[in-house]
Design goal:
CATH topology of the largest domain: Rossmann fold
Structural class: alpha/beta
Order of helices and strands: HHHEHEHEEHEHEEEEHEE
Helix content: 25-40%
CATH class of the largest domain: Alpha Beta
Largest sheet: 7 strands, mixed
Radius of gyration: 18 Å
Number of strands: 11
Distance between the termini: 40 Å
Shape: globular
Number of domains: 2
CATH architecture of the largest domain: 3-Layer(aba) Sandwich
């Protein structure tokens, strides 16, 4: 039997959602408001939220009046999200490396570093090609990633974090082009260990990926307020690209 990759088990674990249950929803909504203001999508635009997690972006966009579909590999996340479904909001278990609905969407979002997980970097291009196929002609993709160069310089090696009655111990390192986060904790008598791995992908590498997958960059930003990207100082690498 093929063993699960780290993201298949960790993202589907209840502990993942315990550790990250305090993400800043106000910041996320402000970011989406800024993107909608910039992109000016038509009222009947169809959105695809790629690697949607527990659906906070998809749900908020739907409340703003848009038709939104969320896809994610995590069955538990999609199960959670389905209680929010309506005629213009749906969620599906799906691997983002594969085509979902050919030319079905005007805009795709891949937000908060929901990319760069794979052991094989070719899967990055495969993912972007699938998103390209899911978009209508001239469709737009917003891909929000860590600024790898700053993240590497400011790496916090060890961190203790208490969430939901669980004491998480986190150790970070750079290994083979990835930022690796080892997470250990006890839940009652159960000792648990998980890992996260995210590739340190540079803007130059992303440009190459986009060229291979049929996209052209139209905007670059360095934070959720949409200030210009600066390789040294920006916290994020936010790329808005167009299907060509």
């Amino acid at each position: 039997m093929k063993s699960k990759q780290w993201f298949e088990s960790w993202f589907d674990s209840p502990y993942y959602h315990i550790l990250y249950n305090k993400r800043d929803d106000r910041e996320a909504k402000h970011f989406l408001d800024n993107l909608v203001s910039l992109l000016q999508p038509k009222s009947d635009s169809k959105f695809l939220d790629v690697a949607c997690g527990k659906g906070r972006h998809a749900i908020y966009l739907n409340k703003k009046g848009f038709d939104v579909t969320g896809i994610d590999l995590s069955q538990s996340s999609i199960r959670h999200n389905r209680k929010y479904e309506n005629k213009t909001l749906s969620f599906h278990v799906h691997d983002m490396r594969n085509d979902f609905r050919k030319e079905g969407f005007d805009v795709a979002f891949n937000l908060f570093t929901s990319f760069g997980y794979f052991e094989n970097p070719d899967d990055n291009v495969k993912t972007l090609q699938a998103i390209n196929h899911n978009l209508k002609p001239d469709g737009i993709l917003v891909l929000d990633y860590i600024n790898s160069s700053k993240a590497k310089r400011n790496l916090v090696v060890n961190e203790d974090c208490a969430k939901g009655g669980i004491a998480f111990k986190i150790h970070r390192k750079i290994a083979k082009g990835y930022i690796v986060k080892d997470i250990s904790f006890h839940d009652s008598d159960l000792k648990c260990n998980y890992s996260e791995k995210v590739q340190m992908i540079s803007l130059k590498e992303f440009k190459d990926y986009f060229e291979q997958s049929g996209f052209s960059i139209i905007h670059l930003f360095g934070d959720y307020q949409l200030h210009p990207y600066d390789e040294k100082n920006s916290d994020r690498l936010i790329m808005i690209v167009k299907k060509v």
